[in-house]
Amino acid sequence: DAAELGQYRHYMQKEIFEQPTALASTLARALELGCVPATFGPTAEAVFQAAPAVRIVACGSSYHAGLVARYWIEEWTGLPVSVEIASEYRYRSSVEQDGTLVVAISQSGETADLLAAARSARERGKVQLLALCNVPHSTLTREADLLFLTQAGLEIGVASTKAFTTQLAALFVLGVALAGARQSLPAPRLAELIDWLPRLPALARDVLALEPQLEAWAHELSHDHNALFLGRHTLFPIALEGALKLKEIAYIHAEGYAGGELKHGPLALVDETMPVIVCAGADAVPDKLASNLREVMARGGRVYLLAEPGCEALADGTHRTVLLPQAAGPLAALTMTLPLQLLAYHTACRKGTDVDKPRNLAKSVTVE
Ligand code: G6P
């Protein structure tokens, strides 16, 4: 084990630092092909052109990846996208229009609720099932019409890290491929989106260099019993994911919220004992987030701000600020995830929890 871990203390830490490579591997074939629909299979182009809607089903972190994809796909294609928790979808009634693209996202491809949701979708209409999965030959991949295999490699830590960000990369490719098939974006805009992808591994590497600063935040957070995570636009699901990581491995009660929802409840919890981790992206309505921040600070909340360049103005009056090295445009959801993983990881280390095998949780939930 020690040899496999190399310089790292835990698999989770190793897997966090494998992300630049995992992202490059995941994107390699798509970029080679030019992010065309055929990346997803020979019939993908016709399926993408005909789809009247996109329905995404997933569980856990994979569900959060789906929530991010909704922002991308709706903006780039104009298609209606719904994102569903698989365990809810399977037990409710829904009507699926013929040709609906059902995207099942799963690291393992074996999650019982996810498989059941995918099968229910098939029973409800003549849908096309796209599997986005990290495990080749898993049950999900065998049942799908279209497939994208993420190349995260084996993920041992129960809390998903590289599997999650490679799912986001694959979903970005899906958004671009759908827009290409449907000609819903002007060619230069499509090319501009694709151009972001080769830059992703280096962007990720630069963000991971912030580890010492996140470790310092973690020392403070390890004394807290609650935490709030805020974000807007594609960074709202990332706030959910950041909160999930902290709960899972550091056993700190944490909630992710959309900035605009603060005044509808969580603001009542804010005082000097409440750390509020805020994700600010240059393209994620930063001016609106700024007013959410002021609401928190006016009530004595301790703001820990993660900000892209362009959002420096939000740092005024915060408790701590870490500036990301570069703005990542439409990829901000990916780059912003990394500091949140590091924060949860170091908080858990500080508390001495079993980081790679958190209590009561399993890597793959193959029973209902
Ligand atoms: C478990 C894992 C999570 C994962 C979820 C969904 O809860 O601990 O990390 O996100 O299952 O798993 P899947 O393999 O379907 O993505």
Structure overview:
α13 packs parallel to α15. The chain has helices spanning 2-5, 11-17, 19-33, 44-50, 60-77, 86-89, 112-124, 139-143, 162-182, 187-196, 200-208, 211-221, 235-250, 286-298, 332-351; strands at residues 54-58, 81-85, 101-106, 128-133, 146-149, 226-231, 253-258, 275-280, 302-307, 320-323. The chain is built from 15 helices and ten strands. It is of the alpha/beta class and 368 residues long. It has a five-stranded parallel sheet with strand order 2-1-3-4-5, with helices on both faces. Strands 7-6-8-9-10 form a five-stranded parallel sheet, with helices on both faces. α7 (112-124) links the parallel β3 (101-106) and β4 (128-133). The structure holds 6-O-phosphono-alpha-D-glucopyranose. 6-O-phosphono-alpha-D-glucopyranose (G6P) binds at residues 59-62, 106-108, 111, 114, 158-160, 361, 363-365.
Brief sketch in words of this structure:
The protein is an alpha/beta fold. The chain is built from 15 helices and ten strands.
Query: Tally the helices: what do you get?
Result: 15
Q: Name every ligand kind in the structure.
A: 6-O-phosphono-alpha-D-glucopyranose
Strand order, main sheet: write it out: 2-1-3-4-5
H/E order of the elements?
Answer: HHHHEHEHEHEHEHHHHEHEEHEEH
Secondary structural class: alpha/beta
**Helix content range:** 40-55%
Proportion in β-strands: 5-15%
Radius of gyration: 20 Å
Q: Low-confidence parts, pLDDT < 50 over ≥5 residues?
A: none
> Could you give the distance between the termini?
31 Å
Main sheet specs: 5 strands, parallel
Q: How would you state the average pLDDT, rounded?
A: 96
Tell me the overall shape: globular
Number of strands: 10
EC number: 2.6.1.16
Main location: cytoplasm
Enzyme class: transferase
Active site: 363 (for fru-6p isomerization activity)
